[in-house]
Amino acid sequence: MGGAGFIGSHLTDALIKMNLDVTVLDNLTSGTLLNIKKHLSSPNFWFEKTNLSDGESISRALTGIDTVFHVAANPEVRTGYQYPGIAYEENIHSTFCLLECIRKSNVKNLFFTSSSTVYGETAFIPTPENYGPLLPISMYGASKLACEALISSYSYNYGVNSIIFRLANVLGERSTHGIIWDFVDIALDRIHEFEILGDGTQNKSYVHVTDCINCMIACAFQPNGPVEVINVGSEDTIDVMSIAKIVLEIFKRRGTDIIRKNPHKDGRGWKGDVKTMRLDIQKAKSKGWKPTMSSLQAVIRSVNEIIAERVVRHEPPISSI
């Protein structure tokens, strides 16, 4: 579900590489067929454009399926403040509809991409999976937590083994939103100034999408059901100001002024923005996975990947600074 989107298409690549039969369902709101174009003619790949609320098509697609990766969601954290109904409809309601179809099917395994935002602002950094109470401060985080609760109840009641992956900020090619995408967009559009949200001290963990997918694959085949929660992230953090300087360095714009836009009193970028986040990833590491990139390395690689996707250059972007 959501296999044509940013994370979902990378997951699709990995599953196809494992010679598994893969069916992708996506409404193409956030995803695009370009992300999975190379698989469309593969004999072990099927695609259907549909919404999770379309119970008839979802139920039909689940025939003969034993494992579901639920990666479909509205990916924007910031829009939840102005349009909370979007997070409800596209995250909570859609997940409920999917679970109803799973309940009536032979699906045995469900893997769900949740978010670090479910923790809210925590008293413990790095934050472990058993931290509580969970008090999200954004509608996006609230919707993901609601989905987790629904998945937990359906798993215990209807015999589905589920893993909930709480993701840090995921970066990499094919992304269409987030800090790297925004910063590259700003750098392409403006010559003399560079605008950031907040005071730049927001400090978070970033994980490259390849590390994220490798973690999901490693853990998915080691279920500890009926419900297990696993953090996915890096082992360090990087602040927004440093990311802005990296982007400007890669664009060779060392003299550009960095403008702080409308920071809240405590420096966060918007209402609902968790200012400091790093996840405890010891559980994922105990299953044989560990990130290959630091937050800094993930940022640099992602900036170059997104530039390569969006602009034609006469010489390649620098890969280190």
Strand content: 15-25%
Q: How many strands appear in the DSSP assignment?
A: 13
CATH class type of the domain at 6-171 and 206-232: Alpha Beta
Strand order of the largest sheet: 3-4-5-10
- Multimer state: single chain
The gist of it:
The chain has 321 residues and is α/β, with parallel strands linked by helices. It has helices at 6-17, 55-61, 84-103, 139-158, 179-189, 209-220, 240-250, 282-286, 295-310; strands at 22-26, 45-49, 67-70, 109-115, 161-167, 169-171, 193-197, 203-204, 206-208, 227-232, 238-239, 257-261, 276-277.
Description:
With 321 residues, this protein is α/β, with parallel strands linked by helices. It contains nine helices and 13 strands. The chain has helices spanning 6-17, 55-61, 84-103, 139-158, 179-189, 209-220, 240-250, 282-286, 295-310; strands spanning 22-26, 45-49, 67-70, 109-115, 161-167, 169-171, 193-197, 203-204, 206-208, 227-232, 238-239, 257-261, 276-277. The strands form five sheets. A four-stranded parallel β-sheet has the order 3-4-5-10, with helices on both faces. The longest helix has 20 residues, at 84-103. 44% of the residues are buried.
Fold topology:
Blueprint: H1 6-17, E1 22-26, E2 45-49, H2 55-61, E3 67-70, H3 84-103, E4 109-115, H4 139-158, E5 161-167, E6 169-171, H5 179-189, E7 193-197, E8 203-204, E9 206-208, H6 209-220, E10 227-232, E11 238-239, H7 240-250, E12 257-261, E13 276-277, H8 282-286, H9 295-310
Parallel strand pairs: 1-2, 3-4, 4-5, 5-10, 6-9, 7-12, 8-13
Antiparallel strand pairs: 8-11
